[in-house]
Design brief:
2 domains, 58% helix, mainly alpha
């Protein structure tokens, strides 16, 4: 999740906590620090149960979901270089275009690619 999305959820929860419980929080720290966010989530859920503020519980759940680290599966440097897909150890296909060529040259012959780089068509 983007940091701006975490910050937006933290800001909304901050406003709710300020209005309903009088608690002032640090929204930027809440979006960046998982320990602080966990404590605010615990406090918001307790306030939701004790005082009957269902919206505090909902936003605490949103913040908890936002703070779960989402790490994409890592590929090794070698796998990225070779373009390994599904366990096949084949190099990625060459597009035929020179490095830095525009997308319109993909699939063009090598002579066409060299002819139109930095040139007017």
């Amino acid at each position: 999740m983007l940091n701006s999305e975490k910050l937006a959820i933290a800001a909304h929860l901050h406003v709710l906590l300020r209005r309903k419980t009088g608690r002032v929080t640090d929204t930027e720290w809440m979006a960046a620090n998982t320990e602080y966010a966990a404590e605010i989530i615990r406090f918001a859920r307790a306030a939701a149960q004790d005082d009957g503020h269902a919206d505090l519980g909902e936003w605490a759940a949103k913040l908890e979901l936002a703070m779960v680290p989402h790490t994409p599966p890592r590929t090794s440097h070698r796998d990225r270089l070779l373009g390994v897909l599904g366990g096949n150890s084949r190099p990625a296909p060459f597009s035929g275009a020179a490095p830095g060529a525009s997308d319109s040259l993909i699939g063009a012959t090598e002579s066409d690619a060299h002819r139109y780089i930095r040139g007017i068509r």
